[in-house]
Design goal:
This protein has 156 residues and is of the alpha/beta class. It is built from five helices and seven strands; from the N terminus they run βββαβαβααββα. The protein has a single domain, classed as Glutaredoxin.
């Protein structure tokens, strides 16, 4: 069963690449969350997507929105990726695939290449899915879609 707009976002509590604990429940009623699943650190489209969110980060933070990236890569890989590209947001390792399964970010093709699907969720302060963006070969669909969708969310 795939998630759809209006569904409650599955909870998670994971240690990010920089050692901080990141739990969805910590953002409840405080911040919206952009949760973007991407196939692999240091690949062309994934790097473009992560850097797009980096470039929009201040704007999104100004709209009470946190950005979190997720892939199957290890925290060591994420740490290198974040440092090299100056990513200000946490990257979560999903080495067990539990988060990707909970969010439906798995696919047959991704399974063959051992990567999650490229899918981005906008989670409102109420914990419900407010937007879903898919586009395996386009980083812009995700970044620009989020920027527009966040503007439409209630401020409180």
């Amino acid at each position: 069963m795939s998630l759809k707009v209006g569904d409650a976002a599955p909870l998670f509590d994971v240690t990010a690449h920089d050692g901080r604990r990141v739990a969805l429940s910590d953002f409840a009623r405080k911040r919206n969350v952009v949760l973007f699943f991407y196939p692999k650190d240091e690949t062309s489209i994934c790097t473009k997507e992560a850097c797009g969110f980096r470039d929009a980060y201040e704007e999104l933070m100004g709209q009470d929105t946190e950005v979190i990236g997720v892939s199957y890569d290890s925290n060591a890989s994420h740490d290198q990726f974040a440092r090299k590209h100056h990513l200000p947001f946490p990257l979560l390792p999903d080495t067990s695939r539990a988060l990707a399964k909970a969010y439906g970010a798995t696919s047959l093709i991704g399974g063959l290449f051992n990567t999650p699907s490229r899918i981005t969720f906008l989670i409102g302060k109420d914990g419900a899915i407010a937007g879903i963006f898919r586009g395996a070969l386009s980083a812009d669909v995700h970044v620009e879609g989020i920027r527009e969708a966040v503007k439409k969310l209630p401020a409180a």
